[in-house]
Amino acid sequence: MKELNISELRDNMFDAISKEWMLVTAGTPDKFNMMTASWGGVGVLWAKPVAFIFIRPERYTYEFIEKNDKLTLSFLGEEHKDVHKVCGLKSGRDTDKVAETGLKPYTTPDGNIAYEQARMVLECKKLYADMIDPEHFIDKSLTDRWYGEGKGGFHKMYVVEIEHVWVKE
Ligand SMILES: Cc1cc2nc3c(=O)[nH]c(=O)nc-3n(C[C@H](O)[C@H](O)[C@H](O)COP(=O)(O)O)c2cc1C
Q: Could you tell me if the CB of 18 is within 6 A of ligand 1?
């Protein structure tokens, strides 16, 4: 992988996140977990390049994000879409997702986990996190549409600084 300056990033991140999807990974080389995510974004906040992701507390990955300062967002390209069938539908609590998907994890120089299959990795540091508060919805129809029985709990939003962008050489 080679490191890109954030200004060199030419991806349409709307499509990358919502259509290609990403793997959110947190933990240590000894113990980590990953899950598919298709909600989030990138931008600028506090004069830093940031990403923001939304994770339901019931996810096993949530525990790893909570315990660790850093996480990675890995974009695998359309050719590895099958990985998301496992990582987006099964939990690391009862599935060895690396074994089941054939993902090949590696440790970045900063000690975070990414995958040989990834075409792009955003290596990130947590800056801010808060639970989405049902009281704060201005469009109240969203709470009925996305939360509740059979849909899932309110997300926690994490704003993370993008410290490194890696792309395949
Ligand atoms: C396409 C797709 C997108 C998803 N996006 C999110 C997301 O943005 N946030 C979230 O909390 N869960 C999302 N999920 C659900 C998690 O990936 C799923 O619950 C996963 O099995 C959690 O694994 P874990 O328990 O090992 O963390 C998504 C699932 C799919 C299939």
A: no
* Residues present in the chain in total: 169
Q: Using alpha carbons only, what angle is made at residue 69 by residues 123 and 96, rounded to the nearest 5 degrees?
A: 75
Question: pLDDT digit string (tens) for 101-147?
Answer: 999 999 999 999 999 999 999 999 999 999 999 999 999 999 999 99
Q: Determine if ligand 1 sits within 6 Å of the CB of residue 59.
A: yes
Ligand 1, residues 36, 81, 94, 113: which to mutate, most atoms within 8 A of Cβ?
A: 36
pTM of full prediction above 0.85: yes
Domains of the chain in sequence order: 2-167 (2.30.110.10)
Closest CA to ligand 1's atom 16 = 88
Residue 55 phi, psi (nearest 5) = -125, 125
pLDDT of residue 50: 98
